[in-house]
Each structure stands twice: as C-alpha cells, then as structure tokens.
UniProtKB/TrEMBL annotation:
PROSITE patterns reported for this sequence: ABC_TRANSPORTER_1, ABC_TRANSPORTER_2
Residue ranges crossing the lipid bilayer per the database entry: none
Single GO MF annotation: ATP binding
Stored SMART domains: AAA (SM00382)
The protein's name in its UniProt record: ABC transporter ATP-binding protein
Keyword Chloroplast among record annotations: no
Length: 273
C-alpha cells in the first residue's frame, strides 16, 4: 500500500535522448530531471518552447521510455501506459465519426476501465461525466457540431470517465480563446476537487504556456529550462483555495507571474529568435 508520505509520482534523474533513425543525430531533450509529485497535487509545468515538457509528460504516461533515470508511480516502476494514468492532449484527439456519448464512453467500452461494468453501469458513468462537464443535451452531437470549448469538455469527460488516478494534461486548453479558457480553468479546479478534502483529489500534471494559467491552477509550478530540459525552479503557489476569478487581480498573483516570467524570459526570447 502506498503510504501517505510516498509521492504519487517520483521522477529520479530522468533523461531522454532522441536519436534520429537515419542521420544518427542525437538530441538530449531532457536531462537529470528529478521531481516528486504528491498525491492530490495540482502541478503545472511551464518553460520555453522545446524545453522538453511534452517529453516529460509522455514518459510519465509511459508512451515514451526514458533513456536514463527512473519514473515510479505509487512506488512501482512505470513500464508503459496504464489506465491509472490518463492523458489529454491539446488537439482533443476525439473520434470525428463518433457522437459525444460514444467518445466519452470509448475507454469504458474498449479498455480496461470498463471491464466488469454492465452496459447500464457504463451508460450511467458516461452520463455522469457528460453532466459534470456541462454537456447534457449534446450527447448525440458529433465533434464537427461542437465549438472548441465543447470539444475540450468532451475530451475532459472521456479522460475522467476512465477513472484515472493521475491526470496528465499537455496544454489541454491551449487551443481555446481567452474567455473560454478562463471558464474551463475554474471548472477544471472544481472537477479536480478543489472544494474536497485533499485526499479526495486527483493528482494532476498540467503543461501550459500560460504563466497566469499555471499560477491560477497550481499548488506548485515547475519551471523548466532548455537544452537540455531540466527543472530550473519549483515555485509554491501560496494563494488560498478555492481560487476565485478575483485572485487574478490580486498583487500576489501578479508577483508570482512576474517571478516565473523572469525565470523563463531570456530563454523564451531565444527559443523564437
Ligand atoms: N521524436 C523526437 N525525435 C527527436 N527529437 C525530438 C522528438 N520529440 C521531441 N524532440 C526534441 O526534444 C526537445 C523537446 O521537445 P518537447 O516536444 O518535449 O518540447 P516542449 O517543451 O513540449 O515544447 P512545446 O512547448 O513547443 O510543446 C525539442 O528539442 C524537440 O525538437
Ligand atoms: Mg509540447
């Protein structure tokens, strides 16, 4: 049994070197990346473009293997993908030919999360999460009939319906307009369990380009530097929960976003130069 003190995720000196198949050219994308993620924590990762954020997330997801170091979940070595770690990407990755209901229920019908459930139980589960993300009434619609914000909600409902312990999110709100994004940030905190006991919250690793998004959401923000990707700082976000819209205009919010921006500013300019 995982003890309370044991981190949910433990990354120890993780590195990833890509080798191009034809040229043999090596890219050290991530080096010596060490981090513990606590159970129930909302952790955001920010850093300049190309610093290795997605590489780190994909390795936690088990979609990619580290070339050095070790990743553990609940004390067990991560060897590959698992239903207890759900992944959500920026581009929704919905099935265009399936309805909202069938997209949300896909993992329950075809994967391990739904094994042992009756058809009626699966249906109830799909309905529960469709309602939770505010899509009741849209169950029969297809992705092309939905706005970007609605598609993102479908992807979120699908992720949650599979019942993962750990949510791995790679810029999940990146494609949205600023207003929809702010609304979904608040909803995401509600769904994560901001109002619940810490022990009842999911563990979230959330990648974003938005420093203000990271400060709004996170318990801690990991700032990465690039070439190779490393942890350059870990910032505690000491803004009380529940986080309301009004915190965005508070001085502490501005101080934290300024502090984080100052850590990545130079590299961010270099990345696009
Ligand atoms: N399959 C691959 N083969 C070779 N190099 C790769 C591969 N995937 C990523 N890289 C390189 O690894 C580095 C980190 O890439 P990664 O996608 O993790 O960055 P990122 O921080 O997610 O960037 P962004 O913010 O733009 O999404 C980059 O230099 C990238 O070019
Ligand atoms: Mg990325």
């Amino acid at each position: 049994m995982p003890s309370k003190a044991q981190p949910k995720l433990r990354l120890r000196n993780v590195s990833k070197e890509y080798v191009a198949p034809r040229t043999g050219q090596r890219t050290l994308a991530v080096s010596d990346f060490t981090l513990d993620v606590r159970a129930g924590e909302f952790l955001c990762i920010v850093g300049p473009s190309g610093c290795g954020k997605s590489t780190v997330l994909n390795m936690i997801a088990g979609l990619d293997q580290p070339t050095g170091g070790d990743i553990e979940m609940d004390g067990h070595h991560v060897r590959g993908p698992g239903a207890e770690r759900g992944v959500m990407f920026q581009d929704y990755a919905l099935f265009p030919w399936k309805s909202v209901r069938d997209n949300v229920g896909f993992g329950l019908r075809h994967g391990t999360p739904g094994a042992g459930l009756t058809a009626a139980e699966r249906n109830d589960r799909v309905n529960h999460f469709v309602n939770m993300v505010g899509l009741a009434g849209a169950e029969a619609k297809f992705p092309h009939q939905l706005s970007g914000g609605m598609k993102q909600r479908v992807a979120l409902a699908r992720l949650l319906a599979n019942g993962p312990d750990v949510l791995l999110m790679d810029e999940p709100l990146g494609a949205l307009d600023a207003q929809t994004r702010m609304v979904l940030q608040v909803e995401l905190l509600r769904i994560w369990g901001e109002a619940a006991e810490e022990g009842d919250r999911k563990t979230v690793v959330f990648i974003t380009h938005g420093i203000d998004e990271a400060v709004f959401l996170a318990d801690r923000v990991v700032v990465m530097s690039s070439h190779p990707g490393r942890v350059s700082a870990v910032i505690d976000i000491d803004i009380p929960r529940p986080r309301r819209e009004s915190i965005r205009s508070e001085p502490r919010f501005g101080q934290l976003t300024d502090e984080i921006w100052s850590l990545i500013r130079d590299e961010a300019y270099q990345a696009i130069a």
